Amino acid sequence: MTQMTVQSDSLSLKSKSTMAEVGPVIQSVVHYLRDHEVSSSLINQISIVIRELLINAMKHGNGFHSEDSVILCISSVEHNRFKIEVQDSGDGFDYQKLEMSLPENPREIQNRGFRLVKAYSDSIVFNQKGNKVTAYVSA
User: Fold this and answer.
1) What is the pTM of this model?
2) Which is nearest to 21 in space by CA: 70, 56, 61, 60?
3) Exposure of 114 by Cβ count < 10 A (0-12 exposed, 13-18 middle, 19+ buried)?
4) Whole-angstrom Cα distance, residue 139 to residue 129?
5) What CA–CA distance (Å, rounded) separates 135 from 82?
6) CB-facing half-sphere around the CA of 95: CA atoms within 13 A
7) Average pLDDT, the chain
8) Integer CA distances (angstroms), 119 to 29, 97, 122, in order
9) Closest Cα partner for 38 from 93, 79, 84?
10) Residue 13 Cα to chain centre, angstroms
């Protein structure tokens, strides 16, 4: 079950760490963005970033333990620019060792999550612990 808080310029969702939650969370974000008249192309970018961040948090941060939660907050920081924060309940990781360059083989799916996030985001910032990531996405 996902808990949702909606404000005029932000949406917060807290969900369990199961793959079954990813789709409904993204759908909630899409509805929120459509209600705020965000373009389809920007909604698609944001959806990809959120999907990858959620899956990474659930899988690597929480080990898909359904008793652990993932918190997603999306807020408008200026016209057509959004701040996306995803935090898991895990111990964090050494994000400085992440390989962020795109692979030579575009069909490679291993370790693609943060590579896609980087490709669709203006910037990515991790907290010191490594269990919270903030991505900025704009049109």
Assistant:
1) 0.91
2) 70
3) buried
4) 30
5) 8
6) 19
7) 91
8) 20, 18, 8
9) 79
10) 11
Residue 70 has which token pair? 């993932």
44-82 pLDDT, tens digit per residue, is 999 999 999 999 999 999 999 999 999 999 999 988 999
CB 47 within 8 A of CB 34: no
Q: What is the 3-state secondary structure (H, E, C) of 15-63?
A: EECCHHHHHHHHHHHHHHHHHCCCCHHHHHHHHHHHHHHHHHHHHHHCC
The model's pLDDT over 95-108, given as tens digits with 9 standing for 90+, comes to 888 776 666 776 66
91 is written with which tokens? 């111990």
Hey, what are 107's tokens?
């069909």
